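Batch 3, record 17
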Amino acid sequence: GNSVTQMEGPVTLSEEAFLTINCTYTATGYPSLFWYVQYPGEGLQLLLKATKADDKGSNKGFEATYRKETTSFHLEKGSVQVSDSAVYFCALLRRAAGNKLTFGGGTRVLVKP
Amino acid sequence: DTEVTQTPKHLVMGMTNKKSLKCEQHMGHRAMYWYKQKAKKPPELMFVYSYEKLSINESVPSRFSPECPNSSLLNLHLHALQPEDSALYLCASSQDLLASGGDEQFFGPGTRLTVL
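Prediction for the assembled complex:
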């Protein structure tokens, strides 16, 4: 079946530090890959997506590249801010599976001033 | 308008109460979803509607009853819930289940449900 594995948090960083959150997946076929972010007390917001191998998704300074050879979709940001403190979820979707999103366990990121 | 709205934001109910959660989107999406999220966990899919018809029920107990009265609205009717049903209930929508592009799901802010 499909699965997503993320690095466990919490990840604690200082402001302006470099952030990497690892995400690897297992799926048949060619899934779409997503990063969602959840701020405290809120729903999920789509951060970025990629739909095929070597696609790079980017938004708000965050980037992730769809690597089929390593089945990975690592999230990176070059300089984090306190406002980036949140829980980040990596997810995959296969249309053949009824558009069901498979989420990783989530990674909590805390950025300190 | 790229927003999914949910009401109420918070709900406290007893085990004998009947209540409903509401979700609305005006993006012209034809697929809508209900998820349940427990603390410190990812969302778990409950139901999927496609073109106002129930497409997927993830073996959810019958005390949760979904309804899709039109393409913009999605309800979740609650009856005889248990304390372990306390969670954040998230609604989401996407273009549809068969579109060649635009498979991303847009989430609402959620309803935080407490069952006493």
